[in-house]
């Protein structure tokens, strides 16, 4: 037998399945009976020239999410079993699964006045980001952590955690987890904890911050590196100041920003300088009024939330207006860029640590004005 | 509102969906309209107490695979487009997808006399393991690599490769790849190369072996660590000798084996001592006649192939007889153990590097006689 | 020939040299003529049972150092060639070399009113610690860095740096470098820079602090790890607060201190979580009034400076009273412990990163009350 | 006071010491009384523009060493206390210390017929290299290791070891250790062991080789990385074959050698791919007849031994003829190059791991014809 002509092999296989006569049909039936599948009929789909994600680039509007979350607050109790009043972004390309992207979970969680979400722990890594509101404490392995606007709060895998609302007002925030990856790869463990949180104290600063929240300093009682960051709360005050300084340094002609008018920080584990958790990267981006980013493609997926200001995102060539609280997903290899009306603040989380640790990360950079701009392909 | 009773929250949510009256129905319709999904109705499924894989522990019989592969050799050409005459294990729990496990691809590839499989490259990591036969050379980035019984041959991501059969006999072997992970996480790139292989030479040893195949020695021209192993071929001669020595050392009372009567080696990247490729671990296990392993549960999934001898595997409590060439899958957290009739040789590959790099690996060890034996839970 | 009796071989060798008759004398003369030396006559000295440092545990009094530095300020100009008005601790055990320990340099540097110390750079790693005073800026690779009481200022290898005093008062501080190691191992490079500092601005915060001094945050413009810390100034405000919080947490019953009443931080490189420079570790220790540390022996050497309070150090069994500014050295494997009269603050630097990177670090812990206390030997 | 003129500061300081009048003399006396030393009088020596080693580039002739070693065999017993009949290269620049370079010890060790060198262990890392002879076994942590021509044998820190000669012929070999570094940095520990070796068996292969000496394979019983290589013996057979293959590959037009006609391997720890021990690098170099290397300068020091063939080394511009067994030292930053008469085989060891781990390594490459050739400066 000689090698088939290029075009024939794949489609030929497909054709044969249908039209290929009784012998081929018998072969394919044999495959099916033995739990086998040929490569040649599906190679194209399984191994595309570049990532062809099923997940969609999609925008969710915060005011609609919030309204539905409020309604859920009226109708659905929070408690043991369901555990959380969290409403997840279900990517329209992923067939109804409660997944923002193949690897990432993003949800709005809503806690009514005086409510408690009971304690549990799971192997899945989790964080909360607070786009508005205050008055809730999350208790992580017994350490009460205040949740306020602009804060990033971590609940790394296998840490017990519950939440309680001290106030007469409801509060809602963004939950991010690696539930989809964990479900896909069968890595999850889950345990119930206390029905109430173990400590109802409401300190301004968690013990983790008091021990770890000093720049460039490490307690001698904490010399063993930890898989995830030991800092439970990354406060808005620090994030805001870091971004402000980057833009001021840029004005002074110093290298400080990612690109003109675009300041950004990554939240890191102070014991390693690396990502806060092994499967999730968290960053904060700020654009000056009128600034625009280059267009990037990256292997791996992200979720962004607008924290302040107004602007646009261009996702796969389509432009979307964005306001405070709005969320959007960027699937693998979909080109994206941001532009700011006035000052524009965005929180971002992604599965980049997965891609980097498995050495499949790639980034492609186009210029801010499209393919004419400076380009680069890093692998 | 107070916290719901433990049982009510989750099931209650479900109930409410159906029976919850018009208000709840309206809420859930609102979720659907906005591409949202509540956590509380599916928390149990998404976050089980321990991994609850959909993938099945399943055994495929080599003689049946081989017969179907032969038949495909008669009926289906190999060539550009379909690229390879490879027939993949389709795990019965994974809905017909050509996946041995959620992360791993395993296929029998069949190349007829004098055939050539054209060159291509892809971001996906690949290897071949030869359970029987000889006469094919795989050409990896221009380096011709002989394929013979017992050899492990690597084709790390983005290396061009094609195969050609020099003989008048067909040859079949096991292909292993991370296609399922790559497809899931949208990390794949693919490029066609030469329609013929770039070098039809048939040396006994590849250039990579001549440069890198000397124990404990590293060429000064190769001081930069590589993501994947630079060794293209791991020869049976070395594997067999390493296992033989372990069993002899055990007889001499020296620590050498994994457990009594169980020798094993891991194939490694000599530049790091770590796994041969960032997403795939490869090992070879040998049991003495009559020996049995402890029962293990591990996070992550594996595929085994019997290379020689006869024995049994107990998978999730069910015992299967095994002969040369037979393949079986071990999904995440399914207990497994092996026992040997006579000498029993098995090749294994797994996604363990993914689990370890993302810090979700766990192993649970039961004794060879079940839960009464020594136990351990490592995390 | 049979093996010699234990005692005879070494000393016997020595004896033979002198009294051993003409044949042996001829042999030893032959060695000398060929630039050879026998091991057996000096094995004991070269390879002692445990480290037998020539360097002494010694205390230097700040008020005496300061008075001599003042006098040098009157008599010795600062400028190109000599470069710095720095007066080094010369360990009495090291034969007059300007070395505090075999690996570490410690000096008091004195800069008169309006003086400038010209710019240069060297492969040697350097830092300054300010025990008192203010008004000097050090300019590191063009970035002006304020020097104030309690601050640690870094000048990692091959960074240009100069200092200038803006005030009408002199200022003195502690310089720490790895000059002895560099001189010993022949690793040093040196280059002159500008005769004046390149930037006479006097900002409160260096650009490095504005970019890097935010806890748990890393600029996206600084994702490449650096060998030494990118933070030029570790401010007293942060160090003091970190130590205060550790003692408060201890009072609340939380794990935070090294041992009862003993708070401590390590200064770290935020890109890695490791030491600030590859050859020098820097730490700050605070003891509550009345507290005492355990007695430790460590491989490697340290220099301490008292920053505040009064107390004692016990060095190799000998007790020394300490006041603000006093310095002392701890050679390898010499047992040391601290006790506080009132609150007791000490800055410490050491060659511990060298010991750890070369895998020769060992620590032995005795109890605070001597050998009856809890012990440990870590290797 | 204003800054001094460049030339005046340093020399001025010196001058002042002598001629500077009573005030300065009093100041310097004050320094001396307080164990202090000024920087400005010695900055030039302590911090030269580039490394200015005291150690000399020097050649020792094997036949002279061997003759003296034989004579020592007649006159000096081997046994407890002196421990070894080892005669060390004493670098003529290092004031008579038994140091080949500031960091490295190199000695010829001589063991007479049927002699035993008793067991001991020390924190110092050690190896033996055999330039000629056979018949001795070294017993490392109880594992008997045959010593034969061309073999490298390891005794990493804190491994018990002794040697015994099974034959009626004496045997001599090269010992390499980090004694000078250990003595300098006060890191050494030493313990006596058994007066006789613990196992007088004479197997062809050590247990360590049987477990670890298989290319690209790692025993599952040895998954924990080790600080030093677990391979006790690197056999000539493998080294020779690796070098032969590199030269053959070069002839085939493949990249394999360091530079034209210059093959080289590094001995590595298979658990990491890095150096065999944390303080010592070991390599083997082979030049084709007539080949010459580029001229290199490197931070750190080396010792070479000619294992076979004849050629020359040019050290700091001076050419030396070399024959089998000859040894020479290359101090830090001294330019060196090799040229071969006929085939030329050299063993090399160095302190390069120290330099790299402490980030002070630099290499400067000149062309083989001097400064006109291609250059490079890597830092």
UniProtKB/TrEMBL annotation, chains A, B, C, D:
Keywords: Dioxygenase, Oxidoreductase. InterPro entries: Cupin_2, GDO-like, RmlC-like_jellyroll, RmlC_Cupin_sf. Residues 109-175, 286-338 form the Cupin type-2 domain. Residues 1-23 are annotated as: Disordered. This is Cupin domain-containing protein. It comes from Streptomyces synnematoformans.
């Amino acid at each position: 037998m000689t090698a088939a002509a290029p075009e024939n092999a794949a489609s030929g296989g497909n054709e044969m399945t249908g039209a290929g006569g009784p012998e081929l049909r018998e072969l394919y039936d044999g495959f099916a009976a033995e739990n086998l599948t040929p490569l040649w009929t599906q190679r194209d789909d399984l191994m595309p020239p570049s990532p062809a994600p099923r997940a969609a680039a999609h925008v969710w509007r915060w005011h609609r999410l919030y309204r539905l979350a409020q309604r859920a607050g009226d109708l659905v109790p929070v408690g043991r079993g369901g555990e959380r009043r969290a409403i997840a972004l279900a990517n329209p390309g992923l067939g109804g699964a409660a997944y923002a992207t193949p690897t990432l979970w993003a949800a709005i969680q809503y806690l009514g006045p005086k409510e408690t979400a009971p304690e549990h722990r799971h192997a899945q890594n989790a964080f909360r980001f607070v786009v508005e509101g205050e008055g809730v404490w999350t208790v992580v392995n017994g350490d009460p952590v205040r949740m306020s606007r602009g804060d990033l709060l971590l609940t790394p895998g296998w840490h017990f955690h519950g939440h309680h609302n001290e106030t007469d007002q409801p509060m809602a925030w963004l939950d991010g987890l690696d539930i989809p990856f964990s479900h896909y790869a069968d890595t999850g463990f889950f345990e119930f904890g206390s029905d109430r949180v173990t400590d109802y104290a409401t300190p301004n600063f968690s013990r983790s911050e008091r021990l770890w929240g000093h720049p460039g300093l490490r307690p001698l009682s904490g010399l063993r590196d930890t898989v995830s960051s030991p800092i439970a709360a990354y406060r808005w005050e620090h994030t805001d100041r870091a971004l402000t300084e980057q833009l001021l340094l840029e004005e002074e002609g110093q290298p400080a920003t990612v690109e003109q008018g675009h300041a950004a920080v990554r939240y890191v584990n102070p014991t390693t300088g690396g990502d806060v958790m092994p499967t999730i990267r968290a960053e904060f981006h700020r654009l000056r009024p009128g600034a625009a980013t280059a267009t990037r493609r990256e292997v791996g997926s992200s979720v962004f939330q607008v924290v302040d200001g107004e602007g646009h995102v261009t996702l796969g060539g389509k432009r979307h207006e964005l306001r405070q609280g709005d969320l959007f997903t960027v699937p693998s290899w979909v080109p994206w860029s941001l532009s700011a009306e006035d000052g524009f603040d965005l929180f971002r989380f992604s599965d980049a640590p997965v891609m980097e640790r498995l050495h499949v990360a790639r980034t492609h950079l186009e210029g801010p004005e499209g393919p004419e701009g400076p380009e680069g392909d890093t692998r």
